[in-house]
């Protein structure tokens, strides 16, 4: 049962790492990436709809993204949603696709995005530590109720700390890669 708790904690921590990876993908770097538009909602026939469900994305050049809506009637709404977003792009439409040319990132904007990435990494670390804390509490409760011995408690806490350390290191390496992407000119 206790080893199952460590495995479960590991799965939850892995989910936190995956979530952090997805959060990093939404932060804009110098290159065009369709993941930047994951959180964008478009007013589609009166209903907020994720842009990913309304269009396909193409990246013909490093700093250009083409958004091709399935329904050409909503092209103005897509263009408006992109313009009103915090992505800092000015979309243009030719009636079939919305073209987004990403401007070169300024040094100030790069630093701002780096801060944002660090904040998202810290959120991921906090989530992992919360999982560790709740699993440790479970082990201490089991030890208090004499379900496991003190030696088992010490062994389990050590194993859990190793799992925690491994997942925190994964987030740190993801952050390092993201920072390199952001600072690359």
From TrEMBL:
<dbReference type="InterPro" id="IPR036191">
    <property type="entry name" value="RRF_sf"/>
</dbReference>
<protein>
    <recommendedName>
        <fullName>Ribosome-recycling factor</fullName>
    </recommendedName>
</protein>
<dbReference type="InterPro" id="IPR002661">
    <property type="entry name" value="Ribosome_recyc_fac"/>
</dbReference>
<dbReference type="GO" id="GO:0005737">
    <property type="term" value="C:cytoplasm"/>
</dbReference>
<feature type="coiled-coil region">
    <location>
        <begin position="139"/>
        <end position="173"/>
    </location>
</feature>
<keyword id="KW-0963">Cytoplasm</keyword>
<keyword id="KW-0175">Coiled coil</keyword>
<keyword id="KW-0648">Protein biosynthesis</keyword>
<comment type="similarity">
    <text>Belongs to the RRF family.</text>
</comment>
<dbReference type="InterPro" id="IPR023584">
    <property type="entry name" value="Ribosome_recyc_fac_dom"/>
</dbReference>
<feature type="domain" description="Ribosome recycling factor">
    <location>
        <begin position="21"/>
        <end position="183"/>
    </location>
</feature>
<dbReference type="Pfam" id="PF01765">
    <property type="entry name" value="RRF"/>
</dbReference>
<dbReference type="GO" id="GO:0043023">
    <property type="term" value="F:ribosomal large subunit binding"/>
</dbReference>
<dbReference type="GO" id="GO:0006415">
    <property type="term" value="P:translational termination"/>
</dbReference>
<comment type="function">
    <text>Responsible for the release of ribosomes from messenger RNA at the termination of protein biosynthesis. May increase the efficiency of translation by recycling ribosomes from one round of translation to another.</text>
</comment>
